[in-house]
């Protein structure tokens, strides 16, 4: 039921702060005890590498999750596209552990990998929004996203829920292995993130205005960033192209000059995400480069790195968790651009909610 919302997508965008809070109360106990199956954490701790296998938005959540797991639990993570991985297996580590990220739990591309990895005897976990879905039944372990049904084809709350669950798992794993240096207080960071998300969704009008200014007529657009901002850029671009049909690309900011900058024309929208202190200056340099070639730039920046001309300033959270926040304006920009261009937000052409063919 959409309630008073015109589209499921907007409802699902708005639900994200509540989803984060629910995940914290589900999986993080009062005494900083993580409420996951102890056998799951023990199995993960035996591994020498985690392989995250997924498609689409879930793959993008996996890219963000890799950085979190490596920073918190110090375990190496590989992130793989399900449709590629199953047919072109890389040389695996000695003791791999497989994590299947899938909102629906029904994605055929991911399932064929799970079937093959089970045959090889490797342990597996499915992180899904749908209890007793195919991937959940077939993996050794399941962790639920508890995000409530996601109806819009464009995935929103599943992305932030997947990153949150992976962060909670990373903490549990780090605790078990003794590798977590405690630099990230996840309870307080996730509470900050949920509050900050709420502030962004409460101030949608500004973003609606930017959608009009940047996307109303353009045939193409770029999102750029570095590190987590690059991975969030990939998701931001997918959201935009999937529903508004604007040809959008997420790009590593430093790579532009190696080719793609030739696509910048007068008025081409370039949206830059800046949440990482280490690379903020470099990305700002890239913004200047595209502006010099006529690009129209929109800067989405965390508070601690903001400058006066930046249009969208987000509260600062631990930078490894930044995709939780930067994705929200990107989801809203895609939503409003789609409405302004006159398309159906919830049911984009040529797409199904769950993709059950390879
Ligand atoms: O159900 P899954 O998470 O396995 O689905 C994977 C992709 O098909 C899905 O994320 C798709 O990319 C979305 N439409 C993106 O918004």
Brief synopsis:
The chain is 47% helix and 15% strand. By secondary structure, it is an alpha/beta fold.
Helix and strand topology:
Elements: H1 8-14, H2 16-27, H3 38-46, E1 49-54, H4 56-73, E2 77-81, H5 82-85, E3 96-102, H6 108-119, E4 124-128, H7 134-138, E5 141-144, H8 157-177, H9 186-202, H10 204-215, E6 220-225, H11 228-244, E7 247-252, E8 269-274, H12 277-292, E9 296-302, E10 312-314, H13 323-340
Parallel strand pairs: 1-2, 1-3, 3-4, 4-5, 6-7, 6-8, 8-9, 9-10
Catalytic activity: D-fructose 6-phosphate + L-glutamine = D-glucosamine 6-phosphate + L-glutamate
Protein name: Glutamine--fructose-6-phosphate aminotransferase [isomerizing]
GO cellular component, one term: cytosol
């Amino acid at each position: 039921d959409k309630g008073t919302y015109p589209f499921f997508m907007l409802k699902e965008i708005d639900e994200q702060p509540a989803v984060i809070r629910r995940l914290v109360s589900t999986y993080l106990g009062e005494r900083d005890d993580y409420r996951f199956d102890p056998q799951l954490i023990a199995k993960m701790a035996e591994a020498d590498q985690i392989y995250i296998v997924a498609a689409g938005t879930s793959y993008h959540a996996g890219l963000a999750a890799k950085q979190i797991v490596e920073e918190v639990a110090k375990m190496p993570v590989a992130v793989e596209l399900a449709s590629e991985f199953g047919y072109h297996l890389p040389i695996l580590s000695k003791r791999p552990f497989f994590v299947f990220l899938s909102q629906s739990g029904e994605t055929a591309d991911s399932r064929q990998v799970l079937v093959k990895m089970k045959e090889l005897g490797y342990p597996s976990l499915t992180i899904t929004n749908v209890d007793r879905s195919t991937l959940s039944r077939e993996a050794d372990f399941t962790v639920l996203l508890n995000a409530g049904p996601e109806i819009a084809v464009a995935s929103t709350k599943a992305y932030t829920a997947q990153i949150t669950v992976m962060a909670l798992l990373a903490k549990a794993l780090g605790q078990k292995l003794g590798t977590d240096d405690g630099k990230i207080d996840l309870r307080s960071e996730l509470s900050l993130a949920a509050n900050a998300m709420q502030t962004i969704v409460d101030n949608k009008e500004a973003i609606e205005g930017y959608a009009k200014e940047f996307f109303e007529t353009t045939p193409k657009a770029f999102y750029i960033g570095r590190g987590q901002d690059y991975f969030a850029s990939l998701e931001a671009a997918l959201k935009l192209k999937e529903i508004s049909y604007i040809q959008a690309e997420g790009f590593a900011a430093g790579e532009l000059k190696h080719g793609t900058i030739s696509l910048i024309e007068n008025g081409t929208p370039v949206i830059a995400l800046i949440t990482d202190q280490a690379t903020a200056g470099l990305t700002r340099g890239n913004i200047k480069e595209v502006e010099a070639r006529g690009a129209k730039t929109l800067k989405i920046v965390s508070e601690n790195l903001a400058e006066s001309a930046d249009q969208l300033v987000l509260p600062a959270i631990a930078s490894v968790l930044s995709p939780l926040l930067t994705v929200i304006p990107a989801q809203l920009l895609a939503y409003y651009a789609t409405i302004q261009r006159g398309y159906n937000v919830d049911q984009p052409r040529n797409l199904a909610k769950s993709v059950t063919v390879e």
